[in-house]
């Protein structure tokens, strides 16, 4: 029997989930839920039922897992606990400081309904968190580092767009190669924000805007740019559309550590992602964890969980025998 | 309360487990079990109790988890099911073709005793298996590749030592850089054994041995060397001892795959290990999974499991709150 999945919230991430479900034949897309008028929403593939978000609770018997594709700032803190009353739920909540609060709210709702709520699923938080955990558990005497990029930071791009005189902008976060090498050497360096990442900005100016002033405002912007080496390129709207329309991202989780009688032996564990499409990869992670949520539910589990709690085999549609035979 | 761990079998791997336990303060080494006369065994650290292997069953109340450090060929198929009658057990069984049989034997014994038996724990099988699983589940349309090295292959070194005229030898398996790059490109190349790995041999000849004949015998040895580009260096016993006494290893698990409406976006997932000491790192993995076996046992689980079944958080001594706060 196919796992019936709903998509709640339909932006880039929701579209990615729609695509990812096509790659997982054990799952069926039961419907897309949106706050917009459903008839105005055009799905990636034809024939996908689109419902108003308010309809979701009435479909509790038609959907096994709801993948919630709202934003972390205001959507998910409300939506995930609300929907966990009716469905197993998976979200990509990524406001780090508020995870304990979100965990508690989803846990209460999911325990009351007997459902599984998987939060903070994606690649960071998500796969990167998992790799930090595994590496720390295997090499307790060591140090780990996370680098992001090369990739587009939506938050930094938005910050540039808010500057007067800027028509559009895209910001890439880029790990510093020398910092990666220093970390891989096992030297356990202390690295400042500036030493770890570069920021490269592609900016389209409005007519008559002062380039020098815009560049100065970007480079001195507190938190976002002031602590980094930042490069600003002014380009045309056409070039921005042609060369910078993608949403690539990725990064590295690296841990070095020591073992042995006198901790004389060094080890390196490195996990790397290089993603053409940040939302589509995040969506792929959400879909694999939707399968896991369904399975954990079948086994009678309930409450809030994270990627750190999920047995890896639950992510795969394959049997234990098959996985042991091919992958072990 | 500390988790009481026994080490059954005391070679390089057992010594690695002894060292790793020192790095994990929530665990205590309860004793080393050996088939040799216990008084002849010298442990890495002073004060470790050494018992004859036959004593193990009588210590069922003194040990929570037995880490079994025997060989896969003849030791583990007997030892792991036998010891699973008395303890939670962890082994590094790595004879791939016999895993189903070993799984069944350990499962029967561990279910009967109510214990947890974790088999095939290490880095391959082990962490590499996990990374193949995660990557395949996240990117169903794709292909994965495992490369080993640069590292010492014990089996290949032994094969050289069996040639007449060879006093000693060390063989390094080395991934071909061009193959790594071809895989990372996302081209999903078909690669032969020769295209993926090089073999480099350091050989000490006995007095009067014929170097040309030894080199020829190595390079044409079926299965071991004939299908690879192999380099042979003849060196002195002193140089072998000085430059090649370590047991480094490592490798790469790389998967590339595609997502999107027409599978137009490419993604790369790469996991890499670079290890100064193969047995010490394997031992570190065994110790983290010994903790997991103990925890799973506390939760009432029993039977045979592999790394694919273990919730990641069980590997860590830290609380769920702490892990979510620091690592998520």
Largest sheet of chain A: 7 strands, parallel
Instruction: Name the quaternary structure.
Output: homodimer
Provide the β-strand percentage band of chain A.
25-35%
**Amino- and carboxy-terminal Cα gap of chain A:** 27 Å
Helix-strand layout with pairing:
The structure is a homodimer of 328-residue chains.
Chain A: E1 3-8, H1 12-22, E2 27-34, E3 50-52, E4 65-68, H2 76-83, E5 88-91, H3 99-113, E6 116-118, H4 127-138, E7 142-148, E8 151-152, H5 154-161, E9 166-175, H6 177-184, H7 193-196, E10 197-205, H8 211-219, E11 229-234, H9 237-243, E12 249-259, E13 265-275, H10 278-298, E14 303-305, H11 320-326
Parallel strand pairs in A: 1-2, 1-4, 2-3, 4-5, 5-6, 6-14, 10-11
Antiparallel strand pairs in A: 7-12, 8-9, 9-10, 12-13
TL;DR?
By secondary structure, the first copy, chain A, is an alpha/beta fold.
What would the keywords be for this entry?
homodimer; alpha/beta; seven-stranded parallel sheet; four-stranded mixed sheet; 11 helices; 34% helix
Q: Please, could you describe this protein's structure?
A:
The structure is a homodimer of 328-residue chains. By secondary structure, chain A is α/β, with parallel strands linked by helices. In chain A, 34% of the residues lie in helices and 27% in strands. Chain A contains 11 helices and 14 strands. Chain A has helices at 12-22, 76-83, 99-113, 127-138, 154-161, 177-184, 193-196, 211-219, 237-243, 278-298, 320-326, and strands at 3-8, 27-34, 50-52, 65-68, 88-91, 116-118, 142-148, 151-152, 166-175, 197-205, 229-234, 249-259, 265-275, 303-305. Chain A has a 7-stranded parallel sheet, sandwiched between helices. In chain A, strand 10 (197-205), helix 8 and strand 11 (229-234) form a beta-alpha-beta unit. In chain A, helix 2 (76-83) runs parallel beside helix 3 (99-113). Chain A is globular, with a radius of gyration of 22 Å. The model of chain A has no long low-confidence stretch (mean pLDDT 97). Chains A and B meet through helix 1, helix 3, helix 4, strand 13 and helix 10 of A and helix 1, helix 3, helix 4, strand 13 and helix 10 of B.
């Amino acid at each position: 029997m196919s796992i019936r999945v709903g998509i709640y919230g339909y932006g880039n991430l929701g579209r990615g989930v729609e695509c990812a479900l096509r790659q997982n034949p054990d799952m069926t897309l039961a419907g897309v839920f949106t706050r917009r008028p459903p008839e105005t929403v055009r799905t990636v593939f034809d024939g996908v039922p689109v419902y108003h978000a308010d309809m979701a609770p009435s479909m509790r018997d038609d959907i096994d897992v709801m993948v919630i594709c709202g934003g972390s700032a205001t959507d998910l803190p409300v939506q995930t606990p609300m929907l966990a009353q009716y469905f197993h739920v998976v979200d990509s909540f990524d406001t780090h400081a508020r995870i304990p609060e979100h965990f508690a709210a989803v846990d209460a709702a999911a325990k009351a309904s007997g459902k599984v709520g998987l939060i903070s699923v994606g690649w960071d938080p998500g796969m990167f968190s998992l790799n930090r955990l595994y590496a720390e558990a295997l090499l307790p005497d060591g140090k780990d580092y996370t680098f992001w990029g090369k990739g587009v930071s939506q938050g930094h791009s938005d910050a540039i767009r808010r500057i007067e005189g800027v028509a559009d902008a895209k910001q890439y976060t880029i790990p510093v190669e020398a910092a990666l090498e220093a970390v891989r050497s096992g030297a356990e360096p202390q690295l400042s924000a500036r030493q770890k990442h570069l920021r490269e900005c592609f900016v389209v100016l409005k007519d008559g805007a002062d380039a020098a002033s815009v560049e100065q405002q970007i480079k001195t912007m507190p938190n976002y740019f002031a602590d980094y080496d930042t490069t600003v390129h002014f380009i045309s709207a056409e070039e921005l559309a042609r060369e910078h329309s993608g949403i690539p991202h990725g990064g590295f989780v690296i841990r070095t550590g020591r073992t042995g009688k006198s901790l004389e032996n060094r080890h390196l564990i490195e996990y790397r992602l290089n993603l053409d499409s940040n939302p589509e990869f995040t969506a792929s992670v959400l879909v694999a964890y939707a399968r896991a949520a369904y399975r954990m539910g079948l086994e009678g589990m309930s409450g809030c969980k994270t990627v750190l709690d999920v047995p890896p085999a639950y992510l795969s549609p394959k049997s234990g025998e098959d996985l042991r035979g091919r992958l072990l």
